[in-house]
Specification:
The complex is a heterodimer of chains A (306) and B (369).
Chain A lengths: L7 H29 L7 H19 L2 H24 L5 H20 L13 E2 L7 H6 L1 E2 L1 H19 L1 H11 L1 H6 L4 H25 L13 H11 L4 H15 L1 H7 L6 H5 L1 H13 L18
Antiparallel strand pairs in A: 1-2
Helix pairs in contact in A: 1-6, 1-9, 1-10, 1-11, 1-12, 2-3, 2-4, 2-9, 2-10, 3-4, 3-9, 6-7, 6-11, 7-9, 10-11, 10-14, 11-14
Chain B lengths: L2 H33 L4 H14 L1 H26 L7 H18 L5 H30 L3 H21 L33 H18 L1 H11 L1 H6 L4 H28 L10 H11 L4 H16 L1 H8 L5 H15 L18 H4 L11
Helix pairs in contact in B: 1-2, 1-14, 2-3, 2-12, 2-13, 3-7, 3-10, 3-11, 3-12, 4-5, 4-6, 4-10, 4-11, 5-6, 5-10, 7-8, 7-10, 7-12, 8-10, 11-12, 11-14
The chains are: A mainly alpha (306), B mainly alpha (369).
C-alpha cells in the first residue's frame, strides 16, 4: 500500500475525469447529432434525468443493468421525438421547447421515480485497468466503465460517418442549408426529427450512467446541469465528435476537482470547487464566442449563435 | 373593419389560445392520473380546493404567486429585447442572500431604512447578475439562455458556500441558515389581507413594467431592439444600453423576490429559498406571452396549482412532483400553441388572405435571436 499524499489529487482528478466525463460524452455526442441537423435541443437536461430514472427503475425490476441502459435510451428517444415533432410545427421555437422539455422531463422523472429512491438496483460492471498497481488510489482511478469505451468508439464512428456516409452528408446538408436540402428532395423536418430523436437516445444512455454507475443511485438531486453543460460543450468542441470527447474529459476533470480535494482533507470552499465545471463552461464560452464573427464549423441553420 | 375591433380580436386570440392550451393540458393531465388509477374529477376538485376554495388556500396561493410574478418579470422584461433569460432562480437566491446580509449587518437601525436597504440590496444583486448574462451576450456573443442558467448554478454554489460557511448561524443545526434578521425587520402583511407585502411589490412592478414597455419611448425603443437589433442600430437607438437595462430590471425583479422570501417568509437565508420559483416563473412568463400585466393572473393560477400540490400529496398519496408534471405538460402545449396564431379566420382582422396563405413557404428556422 503506497500513500500518494498530495499526488492523490491529480490521480483522483484523472480517475474522476474518466468517471464523470461519460455522461458528458454521451449527451454531447447526442447534441452534436441534433445540432448538425440545424436544431438545438436544450431539453437534454430533462432527458438525462428521465434516462437516469428509467435506467434505474428497469435495472431494479429486471435485474439487468444493461437492459436498464437500453430502456433509458428508449425513454430519451421518445422525449427527443417529442421535441422534434413539436419543433416541426411552424412558428414553434426550438430553444423554448427545449426549456419546456427540461421542466417536463425532470417533473416526469421525479414523479415516476418516487418508488425507486430507496431500493438498490444492480449497477453496471467496470473493468479494472489499474490491477497492475499496488496503490488503491490508482486502482480506484482506473476502474473504467464499458460505457466510457463505447462512448469513445461512438465518437470516432460519428466523426467518420459525418464525413463519409450518405446519412452524414444529408444530415450536414440539412443543417447547413435547408433550402439546398429541400431542392435535393430531402424532407428537412423528417431528418431533423430523426436527428433529435437519436440525440435523445444518447442523452438517455448518458443519464443511465449516472444512476447505474456513478454516483450509482437514483435521487432527485442526481443531475445538476450536466445536460445543459453538454450543450455548451458541443459549441466548444466546434461540432466535432472527437473534440467532444476531449472536452468531455476536461469537464469531467473539473467536475471531480471538488471531491478530489475533499479526499485529501481540503474541505473549506467545497461548494465553490463544485462550481468549477460551471465556471469553466462559462469561461470557455466567453473565450470562444465572439459577437463579430461566426464560429468555425457551425451548422448554418443553427439559431444558438447569432 | 375598424382598428379597435381588430385590436380586440387580436386580444381575444391572445387570450383564447393560451386558455385553450391550458385546458388541453389539464385534460391530458387528467388522462395521466386516470392511467395511474386515480379519479381525475377528484384530482381536479382537490386542486380547486387546495388553490382557491377557502381563504386559507387563497392565502397560500397568493403568497406563492408573489415571487412568481417577480421571477416571471425576469423572463418577460429581457424578452422584450429579444433575449431568452432563464436564470431567475440565481438572481432570486443572490437577492435573498444580499437581503439577509443587510438585515443582520444593520441590526439596530430604524426598520423602515433597513427594509428599504434590504429591498435595494436584493434588487442590486439580482440586477447585476442578470445584466452580466446580458453583457456576455452583447459584448461576447455568448448565448444568454445557456449563460444565465450556468450563472444560476454558480449563484447557488456561492449561496451554499456562504450559508454553510462564513455566514452560518451556529444555532441552525439541522438546516444551515444565516442569522435571523429579527422580527422588527420582517415585512408585514398587506392591509386587509393575510398575504405579505411581496404581492404588492409584484403587482406594482408589473404595472410599472407594462407602462414602461407599452407606453414610453424607451419601451418602444426596447421593443424595436427586440424585433430587429440591426434595424434598431441603424436608426441610432442605443441598443446595448436598452438591452442591458431590460436585463438589469428583470434581474432586479427576481432579486426582489428573494428579498421578499427572506424578509416576509423565512426570516433568514437558507436552502428553502431554492423552491423552484425561478423555473416556474419561466412558465408564467411564457403563458402570459411576455406581457407584464398578464403575468399577474397567470402567476395566481400557477401559484394555485403549486399550492394544491400539498393537498394532492396528503389526500391521494400522489408524489409532490405531480404538480411538476402538470406544469411541464402545460409548458409544452403553450409553446406548441404558438403555431395556431393567425391560423383561425375568425381572428384575422381583414378579409384578405390570412398570413399563412399570403406568406411564401419560408424554411422553418426558429430564430430565437
Amino acid at each position: 500500500m503506497i500513500e500518494l499524499g498530495w499526488w492523490g489529487v491529480p490521480v483522483a482528478v484523472l480517475g474522476g475525469a474518466i468517471r464523470v466525463s461519460t455522461p458528458f460524452l454521451f449527451v454531447s455526442l447526442g447534441e452534436c447529432i441534433t445540432e448538425k441537423s440545424g436544431r438545438i435541443n436544450l431539453g437534454l437536461e430533462g432527458i438525462l434525468v428521465m434516462g437516469a430514472m428509467t435506467g434505474y427503475g428497469v435495472s431494479y425490476t429486471s435485474g439487468s443493468p444493461w437492459l436498464g441502459v437500453l430502456a433509458a435510451g428508449c425513454a430519451g428517444l421518445l422525449l427527443g421525438l417529442l421535441h422534434g415533432l413539436l419543433c416541426n410545427l411552424p412558428k414553434v421555437n426550438d430553444i423554448a421547447v427545449g426549456i419546456g422539455l427540461m421542466l417536463f422531463g425532470t417533473g416526469l422523472a421525479f414523479f415516476l421515480g418516487k418508488p425507486y429512491v430507496q431500493p438498490k438496483a444492480p449497477s453496471l460492471p467496470s473493468i479494472p485497468f489499474g490491477a497492475w498497481s499496488d496503490s488503491t488510489q490508482i486502482q480506484a482511478a482506473l476502474q473504467v466503465n464499458p460505457l466510457f469505451l463505447i462512448g469513445i468508439a461512438l465518437a470516432l464512428a460519428l466523426a467518420w460517418a459525418f464525413r463519409n456516409t450518405r446519412w452524414g452528408l444529408v444530415l450536414r446538408m440539412v443543417g447547413d442549408s435547408s433550402n439546398a436540402a429541400r431542392a435535393m428532395g430531402y424532407k428537412v423536418n423528417l431528418v431533423r426529427t430523426a436527428a433529435t430523436a437519436a440525440g435523445g437516445f444518447l442523452a438517455g444512455v448518458g443519464g443511465s450512467f449516472l444512476s447505474l454507475y456513478y454516483p450509482g443511485s437514483w435521487s432527485e438531486g442526481l443531475s445538476s446541469g450536466q445536460g445543459l453543460m453538454a450543450v455548451a460543450l458541443v459549441i466548444f468542441a466546434r461540432w466535432n465528435p472527437v473534440q467532444c470527447f476531449y472536452a468531455a474529459l476536461l469537464f469531467g476533470g473539473a467536475g471531480s476537482l471538488g471531491p478530489a480535494l475533499q479526499s485529501v482533507g481540503v474541505t473549506s470552499g467545497y461548494y465553490l470547487y463544485n462550481a468549477a465545471p460551471y465556471v469553466l463552461t462559462l469561461a470557455i464560452m466567453i473565450a470562444t464566442c465572439s459577437p463579430r464573427r461566426t464560429l468555425a464549423g457551425i451548422p448554418g441553420e443553427l439559431s444558438i449563435v447569432r | 373593419m375598424s382598428a379597435g375591433a381588430g385590436r380586440a380580436r387580436d386580444a381575444l386570440e391572445a387570450f383564447l389560445i393560451p386558455v385553450g392550451a391550458l385546458a388541453v393540458a389539464m385534460a391530458l393531465f387528467g388522462v395521466f392520473v386516470a392511467v395511474l388509477g386515480k379519479n381525475p374529477l377528484e384530482v381536479y376538485a382537490l386542486m380547486y380546493k387546495g388553490a382557491f376554495a377557502s381563504s386559507f388556500s387563497w392565502q397560500n396561493t397568493l403568497s406563492r404567486a408573489a415571487p412568481l410574478i417577480l421571477t416571471a418579470l425576469c423572463v418577460a422584461l429581457p424578452a422584450q429585447a429579444g433575449l431568452m433569460i432563464i436564470g431567475g432562480e440565481g438572481a432570486l437566491v443572490l437577492g435573498g442572500l444580499a437581503a439577509a446580509v443587510i438585515g443582520t449587518l444593520f441590526a439596530g437601525a430604524p426598520p423602515v431604512a433597513v427594509k428599504l436597504a434590504m429591498a435595494a440590496g436584493g434588487m442590486l444583486a439580482g440586477g447585476l447578475w442578470i445584466a452580466l448574462a446580458g453583457a456576455l451576450r452583447e459584448y461576447r456573443g455568448v448565448n444568454e439562455t445557456i449563460s444565465s442558467l450556468l450563472l444560476t448554478y454558480i449563484a447557488i454554489a456561492v449561496f451554499n458556500h456562504f450559508v454553510e460557511g462564513p455566514l452560518r448561524d451556529p444555532g441552525s443545526l439541522n438546516k444551515p441558515s444565516t442569522h435571523p434578521i429579527g422580527d422588527a425587520y420582517m415585512l408585514g402583511n398587506f392591509p386587509g389581507l393575510d398575504v405579505h407585502w411581496g404581492l404588492g411589490f409584484g403587482v406594482l412592478f408589473c404595472i410599472a413594467a407594462y407602462v414602461l414597455v407599452r407606453h414610453t419611448t424607451h419601451g418602444f425603443a426596447l421593443r424595436v431592439v427586440g424585433g430587429n437589433v440591426r434595424a434598431a442600430r441603424l436608426v441610432g437607438l442605443p441598443a446595448s444600453g436598452l438591452l442591458l437595462a431590460a436585463c438589469a430590471l428583470g434581474g432586479a425583479a427576481a432579486g426582489l423576490a428573494g428579498m421578499v422570501e427572506v424578509a416576509a417568509v423565512h426570516g433568514n437565508a437558507n436552502a428553502s429559498l431554492m423552491a423552484g420559483y425561478g423555473y416556474a416563473g419561466i412558465l408564467v412568463a411564457f403563458i402570459a406571452r411576455q406581457n407584464p400585466l398578464a403575468i399577474i393572473p397567470v402567476a395566481v393560477l400557477i401559484g394555485g396549482i403549486s399550492a394544491s400540490g400539498g393537498m394532492l400529496q396528503r389526500r391521494l398519496d400522489l408524489p409532490d412532483a405531480t404538480v411538476m408534471v402538470l406544469q411541464g405538460t402545460a409548458f409544452l402545449l403553450i409553446l406548441a400553441s404558438e403555431t395556431l396564431y393567425g391560423r383561425f379566420r375568425f381572428f384575422s382582422s381583414a378579409p384578405a388572405p390570412s398570413r399563412a396563405e399570403a406568406a411564401p413557404p419560408v424554411p422553418q428556422q426558429a430564430a430565437a435571436t
